[in-house]
Amino acid sequence: MVALARNDAVEIDAAAQRLLSEAEPRALPKLSDLSTSSLSDLEALRRDLKTAEGNAQTSEARYVALIKTARDKTETDVRSLNVGDDRVSGFMSMIDEQHTAWIELTSKTLASHAEYDSAYEKCVALLVRDFGTYKVTNGQFVFPFQSSANVLNRAATAMAAAAKRISELDDERTRLRQSRLSRWKAFVED
Questions:
Q1: In which band, very low, low, confident or very high, does the pLDDT at 147 lie, cut at 50, 70 and 90?
Q2: Whole-angstrom Cα distance, residue 19 to residue 111?
Q3: What's the CA gap between 14 and 7, in Å, rounded?
């Protein structure tokens, strides 16, 4: 039973990782690296970011469908062990708890990715709008109007906050993996 639970956890974690990687655009350059980008490069990046933001927002429904499929498979497999209905019921209850935790975590991660992409897109939109009017000095964008600098700074701050949340959620994902394995071992030993 522990092996089935572990396989279930591995499958749903892998599905989450696939969805997260599919939702993300190509490798994103650092904001400071955009200083040498052409207008067409910036416009292409902006399109990629809008697509990624949309992908992140629609991926949760796909993930929930994958979870349901994994649950059904796990239930079929555990029933084939002939361990009794009470044991199957307790096992599936723990599987459902595990799935709920993974769905919540993946939902938060997708939302944070969408926030990051949205903030990055605002930065790029500003650079597209003001293309040719700003200068780059020592890797810093210098705009002729303070309001443009303020917009860029707010968006960059939002990017940093979203990146921090993504990192924290990655740590939470690691902790969730570890705690689930301990719970499964305790369940089987009872």
A1: very high
A2: 13
A3: 10
